[in-house]
Design brief:
The chain is an alpha+beta fold. The chain folds into two domains: about 80 residues, Type Iii Antifreeze Protein Isoform Hplc 12 (Alpha-Beta Complex); about 140 residues, no CATH class. A hairpin with a 5-residue loop joins β6 and β7. It contains four helices and twelve strands. The longest helix has 25 residues. The strands form four sheets. Strands 5, 6, 7, 8, 9 and 10 form a six-stranded antiparallel sheet that branches. It is about 15% helix and about 30% strand.
Amino acid sequence: MKKAQLIGISIAGVAGITAFLLMGTLLRPAKVDTKVVQTTVNSVKVLVARADQPLGAVAAAETFRWQEWPQDAVSPGFITFSAKPNALTELAGHVVRVPLLAGEPITDNKIVKLGSGGILAAILPPGMRAISTKIDEKTAVAKLILPNDHVDIILTQRKRSKGGSEEIVSDTLFSNVRVLAIGQQIETKDGKKNAEGNVATLELTPKQSELLALANTQGEISLALRSIADLSAEGPSANEEINKKDRGNSIRILRYGVKSRAYGVN
């Protein structure tokens, strides 16, 4: 082989190797410098429910746990470790006042100290009274009314007119009344569609409780179930005619949609 040919082959070989090395450099991924930025979030230990708790459950030390919570999201009502470090043991024996969900922050108004009254007294709002009335399938929507439903209370009476004939008259005494319990059941359990018991316990004001107690002696009390869409946060309201001073102890009676006369119930 001639010398010139050898030189050409050598040059071609060197050029090929050089090109191969350059291609490898271009195809190799570039190194990226990764920086980890750590951000410190201020957090507070908040007392939360360890698992779902039903209304009326008696709390134990294992009922609650401490949970890290962003400081900016802590409500003033939350129980924090810095304020009550011994809360786990201090709250043992307290009664759950409202149903709790797992992980839900605990506040003082969601639990009540055992011995401060019964379960019903614990869930009764301040200023309100619990009073019971008899019910059956006919007067309580086939007993499909459940605790925490809202109802209207209707009084039906038999009265004798001046001419000696008997009349049946009825009137709505109170509207938007919360049902506290049916029998001894104070909450709906296991998806039950009805509650057992022949007595409904209702949430009324002191004056309304007096009126219902008197109405129970004068006729039949019926409960009319209200739609969820009609619920109001204002609480029970009375027939305006009941509390008018110029009417005394009376309510307006409607007969076939026409005002007839007043009979005393309060």
